[in-house]
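Good morning N.,

You mentioned wanting to compare the apo and holo forms, so I went ahead and generated the holo version with iron/sulfur cluster. This is what I fed in:
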Amino acid sequence: MKGQEKNLEEILTRAVAGERLSFAEGVALFSSSNLLALGQAADLVRRRLHPDNVVTFVIDRNINYTNVCEVRCRFCAFHRAEDSPEAYVLSREEIFRKIEETVAAGGTQILLQGGLHPGLTLDYFLDLLQEIKARFKVHLHAFSPPEIVYLARKADLPVEEVLSRLQEAGLDSLPG
Ligand code: SF4
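and this is what came out, ligand included:
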């Protein structure tokens, strides 16, 4: 354990100094649970790259447009079956109201994510994004990769095509 910590310290010292790390060293950092040391090193790198000490951030809001999801991952406490009394799909009005509140609070970004709902089609999302962009000046950070793949399968289109259409409709970026 001590040897591992020492190794971590050496790798972080090199990272802070701006040296290039090897793949194995990257894996070692990724596997480490010493979040304090990793966070401190990340902060030192930030200070090296931005000596004027300017920190920026965005105010955004996560809007989960539906909790219906047909994947039903076992670890997930969020999803509900379509016929569950707790299932919901937010109406457009509700989504717009949430965006309005965000903008009023100084927000500039909206993250839209939801379950994989069998009834929500690509056209539904294209319309939704277009309407949001017509009403609000916000950055749309939306849809996880599984949502995109699911939409592509349902629309029988390549993923690239779905991404292009969503982008044309107003999608600005994808969450990781
Ligand atoms: S895909 Fe996402 S929303 Fe659906 S069950 Fe899995 S974790 Fe939950």
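The first strand starts at residue 60 and ends at 64.

Happy to go through it together on a call whenever suits you.

Best,
F.
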